[in-house]
Design brief:
With 703 residues, this protein is α+β, with helices and mostly antiparallel strands. The protein has 19 helices and 29 strands. Helix content is 35%, strand content 23%. The longest helix is centred in the first third of the chain and has 28 residues, at 130-157. The protein starts with a strand and ends with a helix.
Amino acid sequence: MGKNLLIVESPAKAKTIGKFLDGDFKVEASMGHVIDLPKSQLGVNIEEDFEPKYITIRGKGDVLKKLRRAAKKSEEIYLATDPDREGEAISWHLGRALDIDVDSECRIEFNEITKPAIQKAMQSPRPIDHNRVNAQQARRLLDRLVGYKLSPLLWKKVRRGLSAGRVQSVAVKIICEREEEIEAFEPEEYWSLAAFLQPEKATENQFEAKLFRINGEKFDLGSQEEVDEVLADLEKEKFIIDKIKEGQRRRNPSPPFTTSSLQQQAANNLGYSAKKTMFIAQQLYEGLNIGAEGTIGLITYIRTDSTRLSKEAQTETRKFVEDNHGSEYLPEKAKQYQNKSKAQDAHEAIRPTSVLRTPDKMESFLNRDQYRLYKLIWERFVASQMKAALYKTLRINIKAGNYLFRANGSQIIFDGFLAVDTFKDRKKDTQLPDLEEKKELELVELQPEQHFTKPPARYTEAKLVKTLEEKGIGRPSTYAPTVSTIENRGYVEKEGKSFVPTDLGKIVNGLLNEHFPQVTDIEFTANLEAKLDNVEAGEKDWKKVLKNFYFPFAERLESAYENMEEVEFEEVVTEEICEKCGQNMIVKHGRYGKFLACPGFPDCRNTKPYLIKTGVDCLECEDGEVVQRKSKKGRTFYGCSSYPDCEFLIWNKPLQKSCSQCGTFLVEKTTKKRGTEYLCANEDCEFKTTPEEFEQELEAKKA
């Protein structure tokens, strides 16, 4: 017999781990799943107690043969797939395929790919956890039953090529319901009032106080007339400092990252999609070459909903903080954070495998995307183990007759965790002049401002992931594929960074809500997730969970085939002429969205990309028009319709509005700090304005 065999999922992981083990071990990769349900059929025998039909995945036969040959030559075989339900199921399938006793001590589990972690894991192998396997089987079969039973119905009643899924249908529903709220929203007018005051005349100590109470109660100024009455009253009043209150406010660090919070922050701070975040995180987890240390995993396992941290990691971090920032930055005890869910508490939070591998030290070994994500993870983890930031606060109540104004000041007096967390917004100090109670203030100006209530915001990718997590829909491994699926299927599309349901998405959501309320019901889906957690804990039988879901679902399915109305989509004829036969091309829908096709099919098979026109002429050529396109990574951009003859390209949305300085069209740009702005598309022109200012200027010109 030869060496011992250790099987992992990916070649990158195999390469990294192989360097940590002595010469008695051979490390091979299964390349993910090798056995699964067949793609061409349901693969679930409902009559035989939901018995799954597993087959070797097409293209994985050679991988399995290689693993069998290696297994026959090995004394001991260990399975070291990912430490979650799916990883456990892969090990179970591998064990059965390689004739390994899955109840023997054959399973190795580790949370990070470092030499100490691998060596420690090798000392404590365990049997396959059948409860984890059954929880994964139940999820896989539930998703298969929903997808393979509902999708043909949608093909028949709506359009070929559609799909439905347990988690994706709920995600689409959430987006559709938000759109309904936005469409039904009616803005209401309201006003705020600020007083600009100073301790005495001709000083530079001017400060702002906002109207806080009228007659001791909250107020609602809903019109210009009401504001004018208040202004008239205030002209007669003196502004007297009623009360000054000093205090302190703590700003606590955030917990270390879970899968969900990492995806959210990477979207908000780095502009990464959930899919991109997980792709880069996988590279950091599986291992990268960092010079003298060789290839090593830089972060812990990336699919987790736990915020738990190991004592070793906390001890190392506390020493690092003390050495680099001082003991005053350390809390008395190492911080632990409460988990929202116990489902994956066997895992740790996502953290660096060693805090000593600082982002600065790692930067030369990582590409730009890897470095930025690693820096985000490293800083969040270190900050989570530091003291809160402290602010000195000052609250000043100012009376003017029956009106109470309030001014708030704050000044940071101890930066705490902000000393390392560069991604956290540092709130600017708000300084107030030295003031005394009962002193009269000089009124400089009263500044009323009109506002209108705004509809609820659409879901960004980060906000959707957060909502799915909060409502208990899906699990860490499902967020990124769910978001990608609903966009790829054409149920939603992005406007800027926000999701908007398409007409197709609204139709499918409406049909599923009517005929399959359990599939789209948020509470029902969350309860189903909880039952899967109970299966993992050994508290529920996995096949019973399947039965309780499927038989009511099957009854509704039968009813839907009889009663669901067929949706007729009108053929959209465009002005685009087919250059092969001269007919007006029509809009078709494919797996990857809309495209133009010749109505003369099958005699004429001409197709073209579907381009969304903006009504704006190209800046660089005479014949082209600016159209909306998508990059290979799914990012929206705007380019010339004459591409590739003309390569004009901009990233911001063009508007049918002209620059008042040079006459070029304007583009719309929205940022978190500045909100929405209009900029000139001409790079040599520095014109910039807000939508409100632009409309006011137009109105002034008309007048």
